[in-house]
């Protein structure tokens, strides 16, 4: 139902990107008291946005992008 209502990745939209959502994620984790099926605690997400979010948490909120040239 959530993907039908919001087919675009909500995090991507906040970052001015349009990406088709492929999954639904909890805003507040269930283990921290977030509602399991509460629509207000769900967000449509793309797999890439979810991976970026997990990486942000792992490195203290910053994403570093560096281009490496292979010779």
Description:
The protein has 71 residues and is an alpha+beta fold. The chain is 30% helix and 11% strand. The chain contains 3 helices and 2 strands, in the order ααββα. A two-stranded antiparallel ribbon has the order 1-2. The longest helix has 12 residues.
Query: What's the overall average pLDDT, rounded?
Result: 77
Stretches with pLDDT under 50, minimum 5 residues: 65-71
- Topology pattern, helix = H, strand = E: HHEEH
Give a short account of the largest sheet.
2 strands, antiparallel
As laid out across the biggest beta sheet, the strand order is 1-2
- Beta-strand percent range: 5-15%
Radius of gyration, whole Å: 14 Å
N- and C-termini, Cα separation: 48 Å
DSSP E strands, number: 2
Topology:
Elements: H1 2-5, H2 10-14, E1 23-26, E2 42-45, H3 47-58
Antiparallel strand pairs: 1-2
Which terms summarize this structure?
alpha+beta, disordered C terminus, 2 strands, 71 residues, single chain, two-stranded antiparallel ribbon, 30% helix
Overview in brief:
The chain is α+β, with helices and mostly antiparallel strands.
